[in-house]
Amino acid sequence: MQVDILERTDLNGARETARSSPSKVHEVGLPHHYKMWLAVLLFVAFMGFLLFLDTKKPKNFPPGPKWYPIFGSALKVAKMRKDEGGYLYKATAELARQYGPVVGLKVGKDRQVVCCDYPSIKEMLTKDEFDGRPQGPFYETRTWGTRRGLLLTDEEFWVEQRRFVLRHLRDFGFGRRTMAELVEQEAEHLVNYFKEKVNAEKGGAVIEMADAFGVNVLNTLWMMMASIRYSYEDQELKKLQNLLTELFANIDMVGTLFSQFPFLRHVAPEASGYKQFINIHQKVWTFLKTELDKHKETFNENEPRDLMDVYLQMLQSPEKNASFSESQLLAICMDMFMAGSETTSKSLGFGFLYMLLTPEVVKKGQEEIDRVVGRERLPNLNDRPSMPYIEAIVYESVRVFMGRTFSIPHRALRDTTLHGYYVPKDTMVVANFNGTLMDENLWGDPHVFRPDRFLDENGKIFVPDWYLPFGYGKHRCMGQTLARSNIFLFTASLLQNFDFVIPPGTEPPKTCGVDGVTPSPGSYYALVTNRC
Ligand code: HEM
User: Fold this and answer.
1) Ligand 1 pocket list (CB less than 6 A)
2) Mutation test of ligand 1: which of 174, 337, 391, 477 has the most ligand atoms closer than 8 Å to its C-beta?
């Protein structure tokens, strides 16, 4: 059937098109500009409807501030964070005071549930439905577009990789005698490093404490991972550690601007932190790739020396499963590097910061060391059962560090409930450890550094159920044993040999710390002298 098109221009100059059929029945449509306005109106109404939906909370979702289009509750959280001096954990704790221990938020595109007390945190960490890890650009960009590694992967992929790494790290000493030897060796290096500094100056040395432990902590892990020991002078490593500290101070555990508002990656790559995130990850990746390439040159498949070798062996094996790849090996190294060094050295950093402010703790610790070990030899991990007070300092150091931050986020794998509330699939669920590790109802005086809280009436170690700084359940920390051994021996060895005081004429350091993925004690100094 033939259709012709009639076009005419009306008095206002607008063009109008009508179609006529051969039967000459004219269907005169709306003028073109009306149609255009109608389309615009429909589009606006549709967008309005979508924005309206954006503000609707799922039924029985955990309570929290109102959701606005696009931003969700982000502006409210940002304001509260500003009011709380920039600390996200404090802003969330304040929200929990207003709405209850389980807070429902929407930050940009991310639906989040934050657990802020012991019962909800325990429920979240033990329920299989919450064993996922978040998805999205933030969690994928770090490994160049595909989720890899151990920290932020889930389901079959993660189960297989976690099992492999744990099994083989054990072969290289993880949790065994070889690990103890490595930790003891690094504690000795640390003491010698301090001695060199202290003996070089009359009256002791003023030492920057916040980053005094990073190299030794990393060495204990890296020897098992890649048979590598770094020196204090290694400039490449120093640069990398500074970059990581910068990165960790600029992102939060629950994401960052460009992950919550992904369009910012394109319109404001610098201001949204995207560019810096990519640059730092690129540098870490290149550093690790260089180490891996060096490793390959000396690799002998019949004599694996460390985890890298066992993994390379697996890559050549015909039984290799799809989850194994060279980029996954690099991602594992990156995760271990990030999870392993920053956390332990910052726990030590906070521990020594508080000990500077509470000399009675140092005195009690030194008395125990003198009684059990004496001064003729360095402490070792066999002394641990006889040194409950130093062990209690370890628990307390980790408490004051993790009490300022969140767990690694989890994700609901399916629609489920938490604390009686509805949590839809793919919601990010995170624990604010401040709600357990700094809860006045649980600890009485959580802001006081008091290792005795971990000792019972017989002076034996007592750890309450609500002490969960290493997580719980299937995703629990893989490095807890190594971390606690490092903190124990580094603390015992330093207290055995040195006294630490606030440098005369300076203000006592502040304990507020610097917020970030892992909180940092910030830069502070101690006057370190040989013990008499
Ligand atoms: C004081 C030191 C440390 C603290 C407080 C700490 C804390 C944590 C926490 C809270 C989690 C998350 C648990 C969860 O999501 O439910 C975690 C996971 C993890 N940690 Fe640690 N950690 C420390 C040291 C280490 C060390 C030394 C290593 C390396 C050997 C390590 C490797 C990991 C890994 C690989 C995961 C991910 C586990 C998984 O998702 O399966 N951590 N850690």
Assistant:
1) 125, 150-151, 162, 221, 335-336, 339-340, 343-344, 347, 398, 402, 407-408, 469-471, 475-479, 482-483
2) 477
The answer to whether residue 54 scores a pLDDT higher than 80 is: no
Nearest to 383 by CA among 223, 180, 192, 182: 180
Tens of pLDDT, residue by residue over 187-228, are 999 999 999 999 998 889 999 998 899 999 999 988 888 888
Whole-structure pTM value: 0.89
Report CA-CA distances (Å) from 167 to 11, 323, 341, 461: 83, 16, 21, 29
- Encoded tokens for 274: 């995207």
Residue to probe by mutation, ligand 1, list 478, 482, 484, 489, most atoms within 8 Å of CB: 478
* 20 touches 6 (CB < 8 A): yes
- Strand 26-27, strand 410-411: pairing: unpaired
The interface predicted TM-score of the complex, written ipTM, equals: 0.99
Three-class secondary structure of residue 252 per DSSP: strand
Buried b (16+ CB within 10 A) or exposed e, 344-361: bbbbbbbbbbbbbeeeeb
- Distance from Cα 483 to the centre of ligand 1, integer Å: 9
> What is the DSSP track for 334-391?
HHHHHHHHHHHHHHHHHHHHHHHH-HHHHHHHHHHHHHHT-SSS---GGGGGG-HHHH
Looking at residue 478, the DSSP 8-state letter turns out to be T
Q: Rounded distance, CA 438 to CA 432, Å?
A: 10
